[in-house]
């Protein structure tokens, strides 16, 4: 987590990010001062992501629970993806304040905030994978999918995903806590001892690269390559059925892959595989902070993708809006209804299985 500055102590001022450590990176016996860049832009970005992401994902929950009523594995997966996004969003107000100041929320909130961050992070990745498997079954193994792509199977699969996400959040969850240094308080997910810190933190980064990028990319890549091969034998309208999950998947990995690359470089630095020069360390740290902020943006993008890409989602949203008595939403009702009618007219000939996989 964040590092502090104390001319007489171990701590050093660095810009904040969830990946920043409470232990300064020591190069040739000297502390490398990373500066305070993040304290200027992270609070603004985190506040913006919180407002947009919270409203958007709550809209997704409202539509799925009230409109779609969770009839399929797709509905359950999208619901849980929104919940995973909300877990990350929950941490943003605290991290926005922490980016400018010391940790003032106490040990209990430190543990809670970082716990939901790590669990939400891995859950979001794994639910993207689950949605890709869902697409693969629906299109490549359609007959088998009719039996397995049910609400019950979706709930069971989601429970497994949450258990895996919690397990993947270790060892970070073991080290959650606060450290005090004079008037400064730091919330951290790593040991404060320099040697232990470097080992645990680099191992956590390598784990994130494997569980958060390499394995998911392999599974998603296989699923969608098989889907594309299958689509070559199907009519054009069928191809529209996977565009939502495809775009959601692409946006997610475009947001998170840069962060994984930066984390990999930082892990190499912590292991002293990369040349430990202060300027290089500063560049990697800044890259880590910028790409981490970029990664948070995906929590805001998914709800908009559901509205503008998912025909079924827009239809449910329009239906719910038409049932809302508020005068203030009349204009929104009209616009959404018009867009839904236009999009829906292009898909009315699709069979039930094709409609079921559009969300």
Automatic annotation (TrEMBL):
<dbReference type="GO" id="GO:0006955">
    <property type="term" value="P:immune response"/>
</dbReference>
<feature type="transmembrane region" description="Helical">
    <location>
        <begin position="240"/>
        <end position="259"/>
    </location>
</feature>
<feature type="transmembrane region" description="Helical">
    <location>
        <begin position="105"/>
        <end position="131"/>
    </location>
</feature>
<dbReference type="GO" id="GO:0019957">
    <property type="term" value="F:C-C chemokine binding"/>
</dbReference>
<dbReference type="Pfam" id="PF00001">
    <property type="entry name" value="7tm_1"/>
</dbReference>
<dbReference type="InterPro" id="IPR000355">
    <property type="entry name" value="Chemokine_rcpt"/>
</dbReference>
<keyword id="KW-0812">Transmembrane</keyword>
<feature type="transmembrane region" description="Helical">
    <location>
        <begin position="152"/>
        <end position="170"/>
    </location>
</feature>
<dbReference type="GO" id="GO:0019722">
    <property type="term" value="P:calcium-mediated signaling"/>
</dbReference>
<dbReference type="InterPro" id="IPR017452">
    <property type="entry name" value="GPCR_Rhodpsn_7TM"/>
</dbReference>
<keyword id="KW-0297">G-protein coupled receptor</keyword>
<keyword id="KW-0472">Membrane</keyword>
<dbReference type="InterPro" id="IPR050119">
    <property type="entry name" value="CCR1-9-like"/>
</dbReference>
<dbReference type="GO" id="GO:0009897">
    <property type="term" value="C:external side of plasma membrane"/>
</dbReference>
<keyword id="KW-0675">Receptor</keyword>
<feature type="domain" description="G-protein coupled receptors family 1 profile">
    <location>
        <begin position="56"/>
        <end position="306"/>
    </location>
</feature>
<dbReference type="GO" id="GO:0060326">
    <property type="term" value="P:cell chemotaxis"/>
</dbReference>
<keyword id="KW-1003">Cell membrane</keyword>
<dbReference type="InterPro" id="IPR000276">
    <property type="entry name" value="GPCR_Rhodpsn"/>
</dbReference>
<dbReference type="GO" id="GO:0016493">
    <property type="term" value="F:C-C chemokine receptor activity"/>
</dbReference>
<protein>
    <submittedName>
        <fullName>C-C chemokine receptor type 4</fullName>
    </submittedName>
</protein>
<feature type="transmembrane region" description="Helical">
    <location>
        <begin position="44"/>
        <end position="65"/>
    </location>
</feature>
<dbReference type="GO" id="GO:0007204">
    <property type="term" value="P:positive regulation of cytosolic calcium ion concentration"/>
</dbReference>
<keyword id="KW-0807">Transducer</keyword>
<keyword id="KW-1133">Transmembrane helix</keyword>
<feature type="transmembrane region" description="Helical">
    <location>
        <begin position="77"/>
        <end position="99"/>
    </location>
</feature>
<comment type="similarity">
    <text>Belongs to the G-protein coupled receptor 1 family.</text>
</comment>
<feature type="transmembrane region" description="Helical">
    <location>
        <begin position="210"/>
        <end position="228"/>
    </location>
</feature>
